[in-house]
Amino acid sequence: MKIRVAVIALAILALVALFSLTAWDSRRSQVRSAAAGAAVVRAKKDKLVHTLLVSGELAPVRAVRISVPRFRERNAVPIQAMAPEGSLVKPGDTLLQIDNAPLIASLNNEQINLERAENDAVRKQSELDIQLKDLEMELGTRKLELEKARLRVDISKDLISLRDWQDNQFNFERTRKEFEKATQKLDLTRKAAQEELALTRIKRDQSRARMQSIQNDLFALQLKAPVAGTVLYETFNNWNRSENEPSRKFQVGDQVFPGQIVISVVDLDEMEVRAYISEVDGGLLKPGQKASIAVDAHSSLEFTGSVDYVPEVAERLRRFSNVRVFVGRLKLDRTDSQIMKPGMSVRAEILLDEQEGLLVPRSAVFEENGRAFVHHVTQGRLEVKVVSRNATSCLVDGIRDGDEILTKR
């Protein structure tokens, strides 16, 4: 009986050993097949970083934008001359000359009108002086006649005949009326003369004011630099160009309107990035986030900075495009004025957030039926929990630091 029990126990142990050996061989086979064409990596504690790649262009932080002044000409006028782009200017240097030929013609015409108005004023004054002098002489004559008539009318009725006395009375009344009429005529003429002279002076002053306005416009059409800096041309918005036609900057001969910005004076010692952010990513950014920045023309150099401003409203990427972007602003920690120029294209990688934990390559994690797995070098397939991931790595739970994991080559 004891011998039989021992035999049965030995048989069971043999079966268990055989099953374990088979399972071990199966796992080795599984690992060996998974390892075919795979590389081994170690899970390690590190930070999983989420970033956002954006494109943009360099722009000066400080810039004074110069626009065409508002003047009497309301239509488009051509650019006559421009300071060379990239040249250094001092305050008072000429930046832009707008064509002033129409204004010069207007000034010449107004000069002729002013001379005519001044001549008219002199002539009118002379004519009125002569007319007033004649009326004053006539008034003097009437006054003398009135004094004589007053002496005669004072003669007693008893000393002369009745007819002579009546003639004296009649002559006095006639001369008195003639004197009053001459006095009234002189007063009216003086008043009319003052009004006529005032009108000629008004015309003359108006002509002078128009001349002064034209001269001010002529002065304003020669735009001068308000500050020291570097000349930069603005983009010419030609509304007749097609969507595929490249934009260009202003040049001599372009037609411009009052108020249109044509040229800028910029400080190249401090630059910033004008970043174009997709409208779906605009909500991910906030001021203060760090960024690494590379200028496309000098991609081997890396600059650091941070998000300075993200607008609330998106705008069209191009005039006829339906794509909308947020035009944000990245502040550079330093500016290299030797290689950084306004308008140069740049790429920026903005740090959104980071998490610490066990990292494995993204290619080491595979999914089946909504569950995530890795191939452990010694334990075979293990289920893990993916906490987070980015474009290259996954942050996982379910394995230990230093575990060897298979990943695709």
Descriptive notes:
The protein is α+β, with helices and mostly antiparallel strands. Among the domains are: 64-98 and 222-266, OB fold (Dihydrolipoamide Acetyltransferase, E2P); 102-220, Helix Hairpins, CATH 1.10.287. The chain is built from 3 helices and 23 strands. It has helices at residues 2-35, 101-153, 162-220, and strands spanning 38-42, 44-60, 63-67, 77-82, 88-89, 94-98, 222-224, 229-233, 235-236, 248-249, 255-256, 261-266, 271-278, 290-295, 298-309, 315-316, 324-332, 345-361, 366-368, 371-376, 380-389, 393-397, 404-408. The strands form 4 sheets. A 6-stranded antiparallel barrel has the order 2-13-17-15-14-18. Strands 3-12-8-5 form a 4-stranded antiparallel sheet, with no helix packed on it. A hairpin with a 7-residue loop joins strand 16 and strand 17. The chain starts with a helix and ends with a strand. Mean pLDDT is 84; it is low at 18-35.
Short description:
By secondary structure, the protein is α+β, with helices and mostly antiparallel strands. The protein has helices at 2-35, 101-153, 162-220; strands at residues 38-42, 44-60, 63-67, 77-82, 88-89, 94-98, 222-224, 229-233, 235-236, 248-249, 255-256, 261-266, 271-278, 290-295, 298-309, 315-316, 324-332, 345-361, 366-368, 371-376, 380-389, 393-397, 404-408. Helix content is 36%, strand content 35%.
